[in-house]
Design brief:
about 110 residues, mainly alpha, about 50% helix, about 10% strand
Length: about 110
Amino acid sequence: MKGYTQEAHNLPEHYDFYISTSSQEGLSLSALQALRGKTPLFTTKVGQIGLDIDDQKNGFLLDFNVDKSANRIFKGLSLSPGSLSKIQNDAFNLYIENYSADIFRREIQSIYS
């Protein structure tokens, strides 16, 4: 529990990990915040984030088998600090290259043009 903050957008960088177990999803804003905060992201292959995650490169993909997924989360969190840090940095780069405000503005401008 982090307590009260007026800067909730900064919280994900303090999380140990983020799990998204969605069975239906469009573009998960909370998963985007996890990528932005370099929080290890474990997600199902559902929605846009699930399609963009390259398993064990910039996040971890789960399926709907609880035992297999729990084991995958444990293995992901047991990686060496250097290996996990590389995945977190690659996840942040995925966010910057695909989901940052500049990217959204450019896409909206393109649509209007």
